[in-house]
Write a structure and sequence with these properties.
- The complex is a heterotrimer.
- Chain A is built from 15 helices and four strands.
- Chain A is mainly alpha-helical.
- Chain A has a single domain, classed as ABC transporter involved in vitamin B12 uptake, BtuC, CATH 1.10.3470.
- In chain A, the strands form two sheets. A two-stranded antiparallel ribbon of chain A has the order 1-4. A two-stranded antiparallel sheet of chain A has the order 2-3.
- The two termini of chain A are about 20 Å apart.
- Chain B is built from 24 helices and four strands.
- By secondary structure, chain C is an alpha/beta fold.
- Chain C has two domains: about 170 residues, P-loop containing nucleotide triphosphate hydrolases (Rossmann fold); about 80 residues, no CATH class.
- Chain C is about 40% helix and about 25% strand.
- Chain C is built from eleven helices and ten strands.
- Chain C has a six-stranded mixed sheet with strand order 6-7-8-3-9-10, sandwiched between helices.
- The two termini of chain C are about 35 Å apart.
- In chain C, about 45% of the residues are buried.
- The chains are: A mainly alpha, B mainly alpha, C alpha/beta.
- At the A-B interface, helix 2, helix 6, helix 7, helix 12 and helix 14 of A face helix 15, helix 21 and helix 23 of B.
Chain lengths: ~350, ~575, ~260
């Protein structure tokens, strides 16, 4: 013990120094910015609450998408780069149902049923896309070197984007609004946008459902078994192909649900809408420890919060003009920093131990 | 599904294949390819590119049937081919049928009356539908039969048909080239109608190329032998002659073909530069940089800041003066962005670099850095390169600049690959841990790869900035990284000629096919998936590797046999 | 004189103690074998010596220099090379290139020299190729330099791993089960190669091996590990008669399989 500690400074190479400098710089920027913002007192309590609720709602959506990344990575050790497009496909397809329901007036007469219809359409489309993707593009490459499925996934991602562009057109489509969800609800004396409440509640319900599914059902057990050791699970009589297909299906369904919620918050859909949320959801998955389902949920919430509070809290205090333009910079910086400093995620990781 | 393949009856297979190809046809129609390409005639009044696409789908069904179904009963497979083809036609027919009753277009923008008319041959729903079935069956059947034709006939005809397609695709460019004296005009009029080839022109091309190919196949061996029999000096001069001819061709090409073509070639050149760069990272050292566009951007912005005559310019120096600084800056940027990600491997590295690329783009775009980098308004008034007081302004002149840089960069990449450093990179790509155990300093080797790769892209950026005369953050999005990745994969990862082939195929072709542009990334995506599934080594793998692999095949037999014989003898000795 | 001295080396993975206060001395120009049942920490020991694992405690001294904390490439430059239990060649490089990679730390030409194709680089490259050919010849792979490593037969791949390790001119060579999966003739050849490495090139060898006949045939000294602890050390004769060793090998069903193999 003593012997090793005596020479720790010898091992401090210039790379380590660089990384320490990077860490310190980030910490200084965060503290400096926060102090500046808080001292300026530009934002009131209501603002912070608004940011928080917004961030949590946004984070719930990220978390739902992140589940797909994390489950697939848990089983196949591959980044399903096209998962953002799975999310887009459901949201975009459900738009046509939403528009039809809206035009017929049904949407506002029976909002709950309409919402469930949209949800089920989006979930089944995303599920179908995810399963097809696995069957056609990923399954033949299951034992290929790691970069091969990643390149395939990148290819599939763009293929899907431009397929939906070709099918549904290249413009933005405005998602119809539910009348019930216009305006605020007062919760604990604070006005909160109704959509955000719905999104938050729906995404938490989904996640609880998924967690129960994975932990309590037979299929869920099989999934966990395959993610522990694919070959051993196969020897124990688990149909690995089927379990992987179901994993993609469940991940896809979650992404589809997230798609509808996202469309309700941002009120528009587009063929490229999957890319940025996809990357952010991946960030969430890594933040929470990839392969770890509760981790993905926490990671999503955390990223949503940081992204929503960060620009005001950190960047504004630094005197940066229009800090909200840099919202995505914060998310991407989180991504890069997690990958550099803690690739096993906040919750730590089961996988890291096994890979060593 | 895959496991039960052995038990599937031919009938089920044929049905399945027919349905799959039918869905492919529906996909091509709904995604808009059929109708868009219908605007391009291959042979005027006979067939359009869109129709050809559908024809190929039908033929494809037959091909797959012929491949899958045992050949012992020849006429059965013809029948199955017909079945698959007509089924594909039937599936395709559901599209106009459905469109007749439902307003499909409110969802699928391409489900237009024109498309339906195209699919039913303009003969109404009933007669057109029947015709579709018949044509499908005919196509499925005929492709099974085509496969029966001996290769020595099939190949020349195939080449001829391909030539017809290519010539019709490049009609516009070829017509520009053929504009001139009356005699050449005559050829042009013989070959081309207003849109598409003329019938006599197409037949002429078919016959000429088919016969030419047949002759070439016949005499190829003897020509090669004669070339090999030449004395060493003669062979050398022959090779030199071919090289000079090649160089001359490259130099003359843009002059003959006009400025549009030259412009396209400049893009090909810029992507080739970037391709060489990413090839150092990904192809040699196995470092997957998905934010590669960042270095292109850094090169472009550095050049812009240094040379711009506008308010944002800081040095007002010339293009040539800026180049060394650009190289240095992008090299430094590569190293700086490389340091933090040194410890990240494989797929995580790709995502981390993607993050870096996006951060840089967003920062450049933001109002925060606007006073220095111009935000979304970019930097303007970037001068063109000058030589001896002469401005290189036309695409042709820029093309020559690009070619010079490409040659230099290709030379550097080639020297590095075959050096001690190149071996170290490839070792890291193959197995990082072992490379370290062999005494390779991973940090230095990786940073060098990042730096050199980045500097190549930086040069491309500088040329780009100078050519366009301005830089905007929007020019530097993720798609450029994806394009470079795609051209590397298609050309063959790690292969230097593959980079050129890849950028010609993926950058050159689509620039020439304007209709293609909206399907460009669709096809790239499909190409990435297809290459990984079917041909992971790329279209043009490293020649060294190819030679080794080929030479190895005959050699393997004796080695294996010897080893086997040795083992056997040994085992017997042991038993005694 | 001891070329490698290990004192109280401890390596843990979570709760598992892979090496427990291991102390060891390897004499210069010795063939020193390390044996023990599967999972007894032999390969972990190699990984610690070559710098892949950072041990929690203990000291590794090579030729009087403490080497723990150094990176694998620094350790290689000091003169320690290794092979792997499951062959880890650079599969898509030729045999010759594999050896040239092994020579990497001994070469000096830089990337600038390579690009400018300086006479120095050319000369060095020529010498390197010549030497690589000699090494291939030494291990019995003459004329197979242009084969891709993955296309070589199994026995040749094992030899190529040795050749690659030799290329860095090591003073200490760590061989991890070089005879695994070999038939008796190949085993004999490998044994004589190992002897020649020591006798002709003067390289000290630490050998992990399961084939007891080979171990007892060529080693001067044998160390026995069990559950990360050293349970015995001595000449082959002493080890064969040591009751603790016999117990370790026959005491568990897993070990029985090793011995009877």
């Amino acid at each position: 013990m003593i012997a090793i500690q005596r020479i720790w400074w010898q091992r401090l190479s210039f790379v380590n120094l660089f990384l320490w400098a990077f860490r310190i710089a980030v910490i200084v920027v965060v503290i400096w910015g926060t102090a500046g913002t808080l001292m300026a007192g530009k934002y009131q309590r209501e603002h912070w609450i608004f940011f928080t609720v917004f961030g949590l709602a946004q984070g719930g959506i990220y978390a739902l998408i992140a589940l797909g990344y994390t489950m697939v990575y848990g089983i196949l050790r591959m980044i399903n780069f096209a998962h953002g497009e799975v999310f887009m496909s459901g949201a975009y397809t459900a738009y046509f149902a939403a528009a039809a329901l809206y035009n017929s007036g049904y949407l506002n007469r029976h909002p709950l049923i309409s919402f469930l219809i949209l949800l089920s359409i989006a979930m089944s489309v995303s599920m179908g896309v995810a399963v097809l993707l696995e069957r056609i593009a990923y399954r033949p490459l299951r034992y290929a070197p790691r970069l091969v499925p990643l390149i395939t996934a990148i290819g599939a991602s763009f293929f899907l984007q431009y397929t939906f562009r070709g099918l549904y057109g290249s413009g933005f489509k405005a998602y119809p609004e539910f009348d019930v969800l216009k305006g605020d609800w007062i919760i604990f004396g604070v006005p909160v946008l109704r959509t955000q409440v719905l999104v938050l509640v729906a995404s938490v319900l989904m996640m609880v459902g998924l967690y129960t599914f994975v932990m309590r059902t037979k299929i869920g057990t099989a999934m966990r078994a395959v993610s522990e050791d694919m070959d051993a699970a196969a020897l124990m009589g688990v149909n690995v192909d089927r379990v992987i297909a179901i994993t993609f299906a469940v991940g896809g369904a979650m992404a589809g649900a997230a798609g509808v919620l996202y469309a309700m918050v941002f009120k528009q859909v587009h063929f490229f809408m999957g890319f940025v949320p996809g990357i952010k959801a991946f960030t969430s998955a890594v933040l929470g420890g990839i392969g770890n389902i509760p981790g993905a949920m926490l990671g999503g919430m955390f990223l949503g919060l940081i992204e929503s509070i960060g620009p005001a809290l950190i960047l504004d205090g630094l005197g940066i003009v229009a800090p909200y333009q840099l919202k995505d910079v914060i998310a991407f910086t989180m991504l890069v920093m997690v990958l550099i400093f803690r690739p096993s995620g906040i919750l730590g990781e089961r996988l890291a131990v096994k890979k060593a | 599904m895959g496991a039960s393949g052995a038990q599937r009856t031919p009938l089920r297979q044929a049905v399945q294949i027919g349905l799959i190809f039918g869905v492919v046809g529906v996909y091509l129609s709904l995604v808009g390819m059929v109708e868009t390409f219908h605007g391009r005639a291959v042979i005027a009044g006979v067939i359009s590119l869109g129709q050809a696409l559908l024809l190929l789908t039908g033929l494809g069904a037959g091909f797959v049937v012929a491949r899958r179904i045992p050949k012992d009963r020849p006429w059965h497979s013809v029948a199955y081919g017909a079945l698959a083809g007509s089924l594909a036609g039937l599936v395709l027919f559901t599209l106009p049928l459905l469109g007749n009753f439902v307003h499909l277009r409110s969802m699928f923008v391409n489900a237009s009356p024109t498309l339906f008319e195209l699919l039913t041959f303009g003969r109404g729903l009933v007669r057109g539908g029947l015709l579709l079935l018949v044509v499908g069956a005919f196509l499925g059947m005929s492709s099974v039969l085509i496969l029966r034709i001996p290769r020595r006939i099939l190949r020349p005809v195939g080449v001829g048909v391909t030539t017809i397609f290519l010539v019709s695709l490049f009609q516009e460019q070829l017509e520009i080239m053929l504009a001139g004296p009356e005699a050449i005009e005559e050829i042009r009029r013989f070959l081309f109608d207003v849109r598409g080839l003329t019938i006599p022109g197409a037949s002429f091309l078919l016959v000429v190329t088919a016969v030419g190919n047949a002759l070439w196949t016949k005499y190829r061996e003897s020509i090669r032998q004669r070339a090999n029999q030449l004395p060493a000096a003669g062979q050398k001069s022959l090779r030199a002659l071919l090289l000079v001819a090649g160089i001359l061709l490259v130099l003359i090409l843009p002059i003959v073909t006009g400025s549009f073509f030259a412009q396209v070639l400049v893009f090909v050149g810029l992507y080739t530069l970037m391709g060489f760069g990413l090839n150092v990272d990904l192809g040699f050292a196995g470092l997957f940089d998905l934010g590669f566009v960042a270095f292109f951007a850094i090169g472009a912005y550095t050049a812009a800041l240094l040379t711009s005559q506008g308010p944002l310019g800081i040095a007002h120096i010339s293009f040539w003066g800026a180049i060394p600084i650009v190289v240095l800056m992008s090299l430094l940027a590569g190293v700086m962005l490389g340091v933090p990600v040194l410890g990240i491997r494989g797929d995580y590295l790709a995502i981390a670099t993607l993050g870096f690329g996006e951060i840089i783009r967003l920062l450049v775009l933001s109002d925060f850095l606007r006073p220095w980098l111009g935000g979304s308004q970019g930097i303007l008034e970037i001068p063109k390169p000058m030589i001896f007081g002469f401005e290189l302004a036309t695409p042709q002149q820029i093309f020559y600049v690009t070619v010079i840089f490409c040659v230099v960069v290709a030379y550097i990449a080639w020297r590095l690959r075959d050096s001690r450093i190149g071996r170290a990179w490839i070792a890291i790509r193959e197995d990082e841990d072992v490379a370290a155990a062999m005494g390779i300093n991973l940090i230095n080797a990786k940073l060098l790869a990042f730096g050199i790769g980045a500097s190549f892209a930086g040069v491309a950026g500088a040329i780009f900035a100078s050519m366009v005369g301005s830089v905007f953050p929007h020019s530097f999005n993720l798609f450029i990284s994806i394009n470079v990745l795609a051209l590397l994969i298609v050309g063959g990862l790690g292969s230097l000629p593959g980079v050129v082939v890849g950028s010609l195929a993926l950058i050159g072709l689509p620039e020439l096919l304007r209709e293609f542009s909206e399907f460009r990334l669709l096809v790239y995506g499909a190409a990435l998936v297809a290459m990984m599934l079917l041909r992971p080594e790329g279209l043009w793998p490293e020649p060294v590797r190819r030679r080794e692999l080929r030479e190895f095949e005959p050699g393997v037999q004796p080695v294996a046999e010897e080893a086997l014989a040795g083992t056997k003898g040994q085992v017997e000795v042991e038993r005694l | 004189m001891a070329i490698l001295t290990v004192q109280n080396l401890t390596k843990r993975f979570g709760g598992l103690v892979a090496l427990n206060r291991l102390s060891l001395e390897v004499e210069e120009r010795a063939i020193h074998s390390i044996i023990g049942p599967n999972g007894s920490g032999k390969t972990t020991f190699f990984n610690c010596v070559t710098g892949f694992y950072k041990p929690e405690e203990g000291e590794i001294i090579f030729q009087g220099v403490p080497i723990n904390g150094l990176t694998p490439d620094q350790i290689n430059r000091l003169g320690i090379a290794r092979t792997y239990q499951n062959i880890r060649l650079f599969a898509n490089m030729t045999a010759l290139e594999n050896v040239l990679v092994g020579m990497h730390p001994r070469l000096k030409s830089t990337w600038v020299g390579a690009v400018l194709n300086t006479p120095y680089t050319q000369e060095e490259e020529k010498q390197a190729v010549k030497r690589a050919q000699e090494i291939l010849h030494f291990v019995g792979l003459k004329g197979k330099g242009d084969f891709l490593a993955r296309n070589l037969p199994y026995g040749d791949q094992r030899r190529l791993e040795v050749a690659r390790a030799l290329a860095s001119s090591p003073k200490l060579l760590l061989l991890d089960e070089p005879m695994a999966g070999m038939n008796p003739r190949e085993t004999m050849e490998m044994m004589s190669l190992i002897r020649r490495l020591r006798d002709e090139l003067g390289i000290t060898i630490i050998l992990i091996e399961h084939q007891m006949r080979a171990v007892m045939g060529i080693s001067e000294r044998v160390t026995v590990l069990d559950y990360g602890e050293k349970i015995a050390e001595g000449t082959p004769q002493e080890i064969q008669n040591n009751p603790r060793v016999i117990e370790a090998y026959l005491g568990t069903s897993k070990a029985v399989a090793d011995v009877t193999r």
